[in-house]
Amino acid sequence: MLQNTPALEAARVEALQTPLEDFDMSKPERFQSSTHWPFFDRMRAEDPVHYCRDSDYGPYWSVTKWSDIMTVETNHRVFSSQPTIFIGDPFTDFQPQSFITSDEPRHSKWRKPVMPGVGPHRLDEIEALIRSRVGVILDELPRNEEFNWVEKVSVELTTQMLATLFDFPFEDRHLLPYWSDIVTATPLAGAAKMDEEERRKILMEIVATFTEMWRERAAAEQKFDFISLMAHHDDTKDIVDDPFTMLGNLSLLIVGGNDTTRNSISGGVLALNQFPDQYDRLRADPSIIPNMVKEIVRYQTPLSYMRRTALDDFEVGGKAIKKGDKVVMWYISGNRDEEKFDNAYDFDIGRANAKSHISFGFGVHRCMGNHVAEMQLRILWEEILQRFDKIEVVGPEKRVSSNFVMGIEELPVRIAA
Description:
The chain has 417 residues and is α+β, with helices and mostly antiparallel strands. It has helices at residues 6-17, 28-32, 37-46, 66-73, 106-111, 120-139, 149-166, 175-184, 196-218, 226-232, 243-274, 276-284, 289-300, 331-334, 370-387, and strands at 49-52, 60-63, 79-80, 147-148, 305-310, 314-316, 319-321, 326-330, 391-393, 398-399, 408-410, 412-415.
């Protein structure tokens, strides 16, 4: 059941009193305050494919039910990932290109070279490394005092993993989550609101750093880090000469490796505290961890949406979408669809169809790093249960201001000695 707060009660009243035609789900403050739920609930019930005629980003369609999202997600010939996956259109003079913002054949051409970096053989190699790092992180946590779980665990673990996947200098690994926040920030909504000129300056600093690393890897023997894999593959070796293409693809890999895992690590601790019966269930049966990981990713939904652009007229949920229209698939809503998930607002670590969540997308654009993310979460909770009886949340979480990243900045916790 959804946790009641005064802000949520006020949002329920607002969602009921506001005409449906005036709904605009692009406002980041709704997600930061966790007051978006009543609006999605009403849309799923009364207008599941909803047209917003006016927003800061222009008009767009909201697709809110699981089945309708799958219709859009699996029809990439009609619903294009170009020019962007964000609600807002890119600046015409600054458009980084990546495989997630590309259709076939370019999508596969740029995606396939890096897939061995997170393939089964690679996962077998790094599992022991992840377990070792998790152990060190957990053993160094304070006891009997409040600390920020996001900073001490969520950020640190995912940052170390990113440094491994990129073979990035370990002492500079803090740059990776910082860059991730810059990439997903926009002037209107993002974890790091900033002047666009300053944002572009930082993005080009990313390009300079990776260009130097790229040329070094290209001259050396191929390894299985992302940069080396791309630098040695015929389909991607020359993108170093195109700053926007290199920036787009490498920043995509940073964001993908950062946001999903980092916020699911935090969201899992929060959910287990909100549903203490599930924490008891976990302690009684640790074998449930793999399924719990899938439920955490469903419940948290690290990225709230993906956008597509219609290449032709098409009907979804009885609504006539026109060529050129923006179509936003709200994963955050689809994962709460009661027609797909019984008692969808409950955190149920034994949920039979937890793996049916759409947090990783579906079809050709399904997240390529989903197995890495799940492995980190699984190992983390296996190691937590060996050390701590409970990680107790001792204050309200602080969420980021974003309509895209369902991020948690602060989660105050205490661990008894």
